[in-house]
UniProtKB/TrEMBL annotation:
Protein name per the record: 2-octaprenyl-6-methoxyphenol hydroxylase
Family annotation (InterPro entries): FAD-bd, FAD/NAD-bd_sf, UbiH/COQ6, UbiH/COQ6_monooxygenase
Domain FAD-binding, chain residue ranges per copy: 7-314
Protein's pathway: Cofactor biosynthesis; ubiquinone biosynthesis
Amino acid sequence: MKPRDDFEICIVGGGATGWAAALAAAEAGRTTAIIAPPATFPIGRTAALFAGSIELLEQFGAMPDLVSAAAPLQAMRLIDDTGRLIRAPEVTFYAGEIGLNVFGYNIPNRRLVEALSERARNSRYITIFEDTASELSFQPDCVHITTGRGTLLKSDLVVGADGARSLVRDKTGIAVRRWRYAQSALVTTLSVTQPHHSVSTEFHTDRGPFTLVPMQGNNVSLVWVERPREASLLCEIPEEEFARRAERSAHSLLGAMQVTSPRVSYPLSAGLADRFASGRALLIGEAAHIFPPIGAQGLNLGLRDVEALKTVLSLNRNRLDEGTATEFHRLRQIDVRSRTLAVDLLNRSLLTGLLPVQALRAIALSAAGGFAPFRRFLMQQGLAKTFQGL
Ligand SMILES: Cc1cc2nc3c(=O)[nH]c(=O)nc-3n(C[C@H](O)[C@H](O)[C@H](O)COP(=O)(O)OP(=O)(O)OC[C@H]3O[C@@H](n4cnc5c(N)ncnc54)[C@H](O)[C@@H]3O)c2cc1C
C-alpha cells in the first residue's frame, strides 16, 4: 500500500503527553501526525503539575483555558502518621521560601487534555487521525505506521505516547521492567467544610501515603494508599461511612467530608522501559515510565520528556533520524531513573519495619523541618528538571 501522507514526526497516543508532544513538534515547524483515539477519562481524576510543567503549558498557550479549573498549590505539608516509636516531625514546604508564588496547580485531567488537543486542532502543522495505531514497520530511512482503519502513514520519527501498554514500545523491541507493590491506591474527590488554603497535605501511614490535594473551592482530590483488601473494602462501604473514615484519617484537618466522584482503586505498580528510544522510535510518558500515584511525579516527568523532545528537535535542524532518538534517550536517562528510585524508596521507607530506615527518614525530615537551607534544597530538587547535585 502507498503511504497516504509523509510526516516528519508521528505521535501515537492522545493522552496529555501525546498532545503536548504534537504541539512541541509543531512549534519546531515539523509536519506532525497524531494518531489519537477518542479520549476517556476517569471522573474526577486530577494531576498536580509543578512549575516546569506549567511553564510548558504556558508556552503552548493552554493555560488561559485551564485557569478556571486549576487550583494553586502554595504549600505542601508532610505529617508522619505511622504511630511508630520513631516518628518524623511535621514539615511544611512553602513555595514562597524559594521565591515562587506557587509550586504549581492541580488540574483536572479531562480539562488538560481538552485544552492541549484544542490547541493542536488549530495548528497548521498537525494532522489528527482519530484512530489507533495497529502496526509499525521500520524501514532504513523512515517508519511506516498502519492505523486500525487501514491508513498507512510514513514518518521520519515515531513517538510512542501510547501509555503503559505501549504498542510502539513493543514493536520497537524495547523491554520494560514492571513491578508491583502490595498496596492499592484509592482515588476520589471530596468536598470539605474547612478551607484547604492551597496546602497539599500528605499523611504518611505505615500502609502508604494518604494525600489530599487542593481543588477549586472547598474541594480536594484524595489518593489513599492502603493494603489491597482494605482499599477494596473502602470502595464498597456506603459513601457516608467512607467520608467519616476519610475525615478520621485526615484528623478532621479539613472538617467534615462528602464524596463527590466515584471511588476507584488501582493496584499500585510501577515500570521502567530499558531504553527511552531505539532506531527511529522515542518513548514518552507512561510508555517509558509508569509511576505509582505517590509524590505527583508521573505526568510531570512525561511533560519533561516533551521538553527533551523540544530540545532534540531544535538540535537536529534538518532531517530527523536515529541520532535524534539517541540524543533524546541520553537526555532523559538521569531524570527518569533518579525519580523512579526516589519514589520507590519513599514508598518502601514507609512500609518497612526496619528501625534504622525509619530513623533515617525521621532524621531527614527533622533536618528539612529545622534547617531552612536543606528544606530549600529539597524543594529545588523536587521542582528541578533533573538532579542538580549538592
Ligand atoms: C490516581 C492517579 C493520580 C495521579 N496523579 C498525578 C499527579 O498528581 N501528578 C502527576 O504528574 N501525575 C499523576 N499521575 C500520573 C499521570 O496520570 C500519568 O502519568 C499520565 O496520565 C500519563 O499520561 P500519558 O499521556 O503518558 O498516558 P495516557 O494518559 O495513558 O495516554 C495514553 C493514550 O494513548 C492511547 N493509546 C493507547 N494505545 C494506542 C494505540 N495503539 N494507538 C493510538 N493511541 C493509543 C490511549 O487511548 C490513551 O489516550 C497520577 C496517576 C494516577 C493513576
